[in-house]
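Lecture 7 notes: from sequence to structure.
We start with the chain below.
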Amino acid sequence: MVMNESKLVACPLFKGMSKEEHDAFLERNINEMVKFAKGETVVRQGDTIRAMYLLIDGVVRTQMITREGNILEIDLLEAVIPLASAFMYASNHTYPVDVICMEPCTFLKISKSAWLEEMVNNEKLLMNFLTLNSDMTVFLSKKIQMISLKSLRHKLCVFLLEKTTPEKNYFILKRSRTQLAEYFGVQRPSLARTFKELEDENVIKTDGRVVTILQRGKLYKM
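Predicted structure tokens for the same chain:
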């Protein structure tokens, strides 16, 4: 199977590996490529993880169904990234979320046994795997903290601070306003009202999907 190795270079799992290592990895392990159309569900919450799905092209949305039956959006994942790597070798190795394609997506499938063997024989690959899963744990911890905030205003401030830095005070919203409302677990009018309040207070400026932070210090105080 032919694939541009530069795609793997963009994946945090293969950070620091040479072209020769990428090529050898592909030759040993890649024998199946799976494509999904926009809107299709790749896996569902509770499905058993039987192989590593490596997203090499496209964007997917991950969402969780709560006990109350509500949809809670977790994150958007862009290629190149594996799905649920932190859960792959858990005693209860099931997907914690639904994974839905935001656009046409392509995945490489790698067997769990092959991936484990690769990590045993490649310390760099093992460290990248551990780092990626540790970063995911940090992200989920922050997500839980944000969900625990009572005020939408507080949640939005945290979100805006995480998406920007003092050096880069703007970012492009990858979600529609409806999807962002689902991410926060609120109604779209409530989100629109809170955005407008921050704009009226000259804390942020929005231009289409571009959001610029005008007063970062004020966001921290909020």
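Points to note: Helices lie at 6-9, 19-29, 112-121, 123-148, 152-163, 177-184, 188-200, 216-221. The chain has a mean pLDDT of 85.
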